[in-house]
Amino acid sequence: MTTRRTVLLSLALGMMASSPAFSASALKVLDPDKDGTVDLAEAKAAASKLFDKLDGDHDGTLDARELRGRLGKADFSAANPDNDRTIDKTEYLALVEKRFAAANPDNDGTLDAKELASPAGKALLKLLL
């Protein structure tokens, strides 16, 4: 039952994130200074809050179950260099930084709605919302 729930959540997140309207509404949530963009500090703040929310057992780490399908096996392995089968907040935020850079092809340090709607932006949003 847990696997089915994880698959359904992954599909729902994927479908929602594929919508341009979702990217625009995500921008509103992630942009506290209302400048129309998300910078790395704003992304990391949102990611930190989500990490804390997902950490149901409050042990300071997330396992695959707690991540609820937000990362595939390869992404999980890449984000877990110590191979302890969990991701701590430092590892999680490092992955957020990597995905932010991938979603920021113009290297201006900010993401707009169009960049958030890109495949790289959608991958980032899974770690922020």
CATH-scheme architecture:
Orthogonal Bundle
How many β-strands, per DSSP? 4
What is the CATH class designation?
Answer: Mainly Alpha
Number of domains: 1
How helix-rich are the residues, as a percent range? 55-70%
N- to C-terminal separation?
Answer: 23 Å
Strand content: 5-15%
The low-confidence parts are none
Radius of gyration: 14 Å
Which fold name corresponds to the CATH topology? Answer: Recoverin, domain 1
Protein name: Ca2+-binding EF-hand superfamily protein
Pfam families: EF-hand_5
Keywords: Signal
InterPro entries: EF-hand-dom_pair, EF_Hand_1_Ca_BS, EF_hand_dom
Can you offer a commentary on this structure?
The chain has about 130 residues and is mostly helical. It has a single domain, classed as Recoverin, domain 1 (Orthogonal Bundle), CATH 1.10.238. The protein is built from eight helices and four strands, in the order ααβαβααβαβαα. It has helices at about 1-15, 20-30, 40-55, 65, 75-80, 90-105, 115, 120-129; strands spanning about 40, 60, 85-90, 110. It has a two-stranded antiparallel sheet with strand order 1-4. A two-stranded antiparallel ribbon has the order 2-3. Helix 3 packs across helix 6. The chain starts with a helix and ends with a helix. It holds the Pfam family EF-hand_5. InterPro entries: EF-hand-dom_pair, EF_Hand_1_Ca_BS, EF_hand_dom. Keywords: Signal. One of its GO terms (molecular function) is calcium ion binding. This is Ca2+-binding EF-hand superfamily protein.
